[in-house]
Amino acid sequence: MALCINKANAFLATSKILGEILISDNGSTDGSQQIAMSLGARVVNVPVRGYGAALSAGIAASRGRYIIMGDSDDSYDFSSLSLFVDKLRGGAQLVLGNRFKGGIAPGAMPTLHRYLGNPVLSFLGRLFFRVPVGDFHCGLRGFSRTAILELGLVTQGMEFASEMIAKGAIAGLRIEEVPTTLRPDGRGRPPHLNTWRDGWRHLRFLLLFCPRWLFLYPGLAMLGCGIVGFLLLQPGSLKFTSVGLGIHSLLYMGAFVVIGMQLMQLAVLTKWMGMLSGIVPTPPGFARWTPYLKLETGLVIGAALFFVGLMWSVRLVIDWSYGGFGALEPEEVMRWAIPAVTLMIVGLQACAGALFAGALHFCWRSSPTGAIARE
Predict the structure, then answer these.
(1) What is the SS3 assignment for 159?
(2) For the chain, which domains are there?
(3) CA 164 from centroid of its chain's CA atoms
């Protein structure tokens, strides 16, 4: 830590920047707080454990217009921050370091992180949020204090880094990158980062924050395929050269419709949970849809779909009774029974989803967090 503070002090002096060095500490027992204060740094004690908790408290306690954050393990070079400062002064609101462009020293990043974890998560981040970021998890970054505080960051773990970029992108912040270097951790002990646990936490956050890629788009594709299949196969079988599509294919079209609706429902519920918890911002224009997004609306739509499917099934039984409940032509009956049953299943899904969403909303409104948010 002492080396990092000395480098940061030297940079401020050389660059003639009026700034402060702030250490956000949430539980160190190695005497580093005293070392930091003896070197002129200000220490903020944070009672909550976690990477995100420490950074959130540090950002809130800072006094500068711009903030440059980084780990105090000497893995980042605090004596070379000019590129960050130039970008911030040029109008960027969030400036990220890119270790892949600046250089990664041998042993500084585990092989699995360097060639799999970080590239994959960074690719998903670019895909989901449409930001030109090549190193989504670089810990060295600069930003406008006001812009970041307005994002309302809430995560307390390692996923804080992803939340900052995701919410910044959605809020329309000007995000830029600069090359930076990475050296091996200088603390002489293993880092707190856990490859699989923290990687999953980042991925989980990205999916929760952007459920359209996990649920909505696959659901729409399956639903569309199922509906088109119904329209083509319900009148009769189809043949494509040597491939025939008949009643068995119609059954799979029903499954596509059911699964597609389920995935789309999960996308909506995931978005709803994120909005209630404050992790996901409310989309622009959401207010005009609010009067229609009610428990009763979902129940009415679901009940209507179920009723249509039920009446369709009753009609099949009545037609069967006209023949004296005799032997049936399986393929002909199933051609009508499959869509009828599909409608009943989808209707029950819609009702269950509406009830679940209503329960989530009720629990949130009844919780202390929800009460505070409403005030």
Answers:
(1) coil
(2) 2-209 (3.90.550.10), 211-374 (no CATH)
(3) 11
